[in-house]
């Protein structure tokens, strides 16, 4: 592989594109909002006027956008990327999307004689330059083998869970687990604050106890201090992921009461106008703010 296109230059997409460029690939970039590509162009990337322009002749295309609607627009909209891909091109969808749309996009890619992989991102923006990003991949084995060097340019570990769709299934379940843990943390902190215990000792105990998962330890200090800046992951995106997980569970006939309760907190926080705040602001639901 030589020429790579990256569609979407948000916090994640920008860092992915920067790493791909550093790895020596020829890079083309497209972002719906103008001005995000300036630094990448200075480093040697070529900016494209449309998704179609970005992907023409590319060996692989990496898409990193916010939701199903954005993904459909970038692949199928006016000057959409899919119709401009060449046979044999590897389509790599890194956005967190509904399982239904991922499978539909995979089928459309097959019709174009393209290879397809869903590669959910297991980490925040800092995990890419920090070299700790995990990828949750669904792809044919041959496709996975072909794209692994490219994936390794912006991730530390690549887990293949099965055929297209399997990576996204795991990604949604992964985010559900994070949401449930942080929701439980919000309740635990509320009880601790009401009980009058020494919160400094409570923090040390939680950081060093059996509850000290990365989801807890990375969010604990901010939630204890009611500090939600800088915004690393907006509440609207976690709520979107929870909605996609709910849809996924319904389609499989599985009831998820714990996940449903956590999703309810996200909905309640969104109703308060907190969608653009860091999603851990759910802790404020218990403080009455």
From TrEMBL:
InterPro entries: 6-PGluconate_DH-like_C_sf (IPR008927), 6PGD_dom2 (IPR013328), 6PGDH_NADP-bd (IPR006115), HIBADH-like_NADP-bd (IPR029154), HIBADH-related (IPR015815), NAD(P)-bd_dom_sf (IPR036291). SUPFAM superfamilies: 6-phosphogluconate dehydrogenase C-terminal domain-like (SSF48179), NAD(P)-binding Rossmann-fold domains (SSF51735). GO terms for molecular function: 3-hydroxyisobutyrate dehydrogenase activity; NAD binding; NADP binding. The active site is at residue 171. Pfam families: NAD_binding_11 (PF14833), NAD_binding_2 (PF03446). Residues 3-159 form the 6-phosphogluconate dehydrogenase NADP-binding domain. It comes from the Bacteria. Residues 165-283 form the 3-hydroxyisobutyrate dehydrogenase-like NAD-binding domain. It is an enzyme of class 1 (oxidoreductase). Coiled coil: none annotated. This is 3-hydroxyisobutyrate dehydrogenase. It comes from uncultured Spirochaetota bacterium. The lineage of its organism: Bacteria, Pseudomonadati, Spirochaetota, environmental samples.
């Amino acid at each position: 592989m030589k020429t790579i296109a990256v569609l979407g230059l948000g916090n994640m997409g920008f860092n992915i594109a920067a790493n791909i460029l550093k790895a020596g690939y020829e890079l083309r970039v497209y972002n719906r909002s103008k001005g995000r590509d300036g630094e990448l162009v200075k480093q040697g990337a070529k900016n494209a006027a449309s998704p179609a322009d970005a992907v023409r002749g590319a060996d692989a295309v990496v898409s990193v956008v916010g939701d199903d609607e954005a993904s459909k627009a970038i692949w199928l909209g006016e000057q959409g990327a899919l119709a401009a891909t060449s046979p044999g091109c590897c389509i790599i969808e890194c956005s967190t999307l509904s399982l239904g749309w991922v499978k539909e996009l995979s089928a459309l890619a097959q019709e174009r004689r393209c290879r397809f992989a869903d590669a959910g991102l297991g980490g925040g923006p800092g995990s890419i330059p920090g070299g700790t990003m995990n990828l949750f991949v669904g792809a044919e084995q041959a496709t996975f083998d072909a794209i692994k060097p490219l994936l390794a340019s912006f991730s530390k570990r690549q887990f293949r869970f099965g055929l297209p769709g399997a990576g996204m299934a795991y990604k949604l379940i992964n985010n559900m687990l994070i949401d449930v843990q942080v929701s439980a943390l919000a309740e635990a902190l509320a009880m601790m604050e009401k009980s009058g215990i020494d919160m400094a000792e409570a923090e040390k105990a939680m950081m060093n106890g059996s509850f000290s998962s990365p989801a807890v330890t990375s969010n604990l200090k901010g939630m204890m201090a009611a500090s939600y800046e800088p915004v690393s992951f907006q509440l609207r995106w976690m709520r979107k992921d929870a909605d996609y997980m709910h849809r996924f569970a319904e389609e499989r006939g599985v009831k998820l009461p714990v996940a449903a309760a956590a999703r309810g907190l996200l909905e309640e926080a969104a109703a308060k106008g907190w969608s653009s705040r860091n999603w851990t602001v759910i802790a404020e639901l218990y403080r009455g703010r």
